[in-house]
Amino acid sequence: MSMHASSAASERNWSVWGQIFTKYRTRLELSRGEKMAYIKGNTKPTELSEASMFEEMDLALALSSS
Predict the structure, then answer these.
(1) Which of 39, 40, 44, 48 has the smallest number of CB atoms closer than 10 Å to its CB?
(2) Are 15 and 31 within 8 A, CB to CB?
């Protein structure tokens, strides 16, 4: 069985990083950005709206740093 090479997964990854690291979040630490990308990348789009997704990520990061 073979799979065709596709850049869709990497494009999705770059898109997630682009949504997290905006010009207003340039001082975001890399480890925090990685956690946010993981949460955003593994959350189904239908589960949360864009605004509530970032609120959820902030809550998860606050709990993990405690």
Answers:
(1) 44
(2) no
